[in-house]
């Protein structure tokens, strides 16, 4: 089974519940945020590290295993996918 999509929102807009709700409804996926300052920079740093170790087949999950745990911010509005 394919894992369900989830979105990790970072940056200033990640504090705006209305924007997060639109994002969740459009992609029909739950949206998570991280309670870390400069979380967009943190995400970029993890992706850069992952790029450096990619030739050794290190999964992204191993690179971010010590990252702060994301928290659920919003879920899709029931019926939004119909629109």
Automatic annotation (TrEMBL):
Coiled coil: none
Keyword Glycoprotein included in the entry's annotation: no
Keywords, ordered alphabetically: Kinase, Transferase
Keyword Kinase: yes
GO BP terms in the entry: xylulose metabolic process
UniProt superkingdom: Eukaryota
This protein's GO CC annotations: cytosol
Record-level Gene Ontology MF annotations: D-xylulokinase activity
Annotated InterPro entries: ATPase_NBD, FGGY_C
Domain named Carbohydrate kinase FGGY C-terminal: residues: 2-50
Family per similarity comment: Belongs to the FGGY kinase family.
Designated name of the protein: XYLB kinase
Natural source organism: Quiscalus mexicanus (Great-tailed grackle)
Classification lineage: Eukaryota, Metazoa, Chordata, Craniata, Vertebrata
Gene: Xylb_1
